[in-house]
Amino acid sequence: MSSHGNNSNRLLISLAGILAFVALAVWFWHRDTEHLPPSVPTASDVVNVNSSPITSSVTAVATSPPTITNSSLKKIYCSLKTAPDAATARRELAELRAALSAMPTNEAVAAIKQFLDSKADADTGLGFKVGKNGLLDDAPTLRTFLLDELARLDPAAAADYSKVILGSMDSPDEWAIALRNLAWGDTSDQGHALLEQKTGEMLQYEPWQQNPSTGFLEAFDTAVYLGGTSLMPALTDLVRQQDNPAVAHASYLALDRLVINNPTATLTALLADPASMQGREATRANYFARANVGDPQQLQIVENYLLNPQISPAEIDTFSGLFPNANYMISQNLLTQTQTPDSAALVSRDAESLRVVQQWLADPRFASLRPSLEKTEVRLAGYVQQETQGQ
Length: 391
Description:
By secondary structure, the protein is mainly alpha-helical. It has helices at residues 3-10, 43-49, 71-80, 86-102, 105-117, 142-153, 155-165, 172-185, 189-203, 206-210, 214-218, 221-226, 232-239, 245-261, 263-272, 281-288, 296-306, 313-322, 343-362, 370-390; strands at residues 12-15, 25-29, 129-130, 136-138, 328-331.
């Protein structure tokens, strides 16, 4: 078997239409036999919970017809109020985008802000769909479309207006765009602090948790963008909500990306608070199996995890079956991108992981873990042999 063929079998790509948190997801499977732990909701779990389209938990509607001075905005507002089909809505939104782009920027920004200030809105009949660059391919309402357009036209103005949106919890979808706009257009220390504060408020807002819109779940990516560990308590609390699979899955993905981006800090925080993942121990094993034991700090963290008496044998078995975890999901996100290792990196990681597992088997401290670690050794030795033969 060639190296390329072997790695192709171990890093399979499949589309996963995960409603709410991702518009497009591709799973890269590093192993034929390993999967996400049973405690992690699958794509179908999320779809079943959110089988009906959701836009915003609250839609702002003017009590009287708004005064709209921009003719293009007035035209599409009136058209959308008659509930056109999705194809018509897309065409008219595209025409509005072209009209706004053709205007002097300050005039276009003023027109958008005037409409947003009116609190008027109209459904588009479309979903909340994030594109490759973090901008929306589809927007569920005229207001979310205009907030998105504001970022295209003038990021600084969009960030400034985000503070208006974030001043009241009217719509989770609007908050998702406002958080992204704030991150893009205000990179000051004050902007960062406000972004973290508002992301924390959003994550803990129960009405949006109980009826999660697509935008609400997409906005979990802001926690990944911010990094650090300050939002981890909110995420670990939500990941334990197994009666709310959509929110639990969004939290799982956000935590997973935090582990990928900063394994040392994130895994240290998880290890310091075992209760934070109570009931989701298999998920925690999934995170620790991501550690790169070729890094001395990460190696020490994993050894402390394995030797922690609070970690059950069942969790150790889950870790051993996944380690080294190279399952990745690629999605279109509002603020971040997920980098995946290439084949050469995976081969190198397998070899280093095998070497460390063999050291653990020779270390008396890990004697009680031998049954699980021996299975890991056999599996990794097979991978390394296949990779060597394929070179």
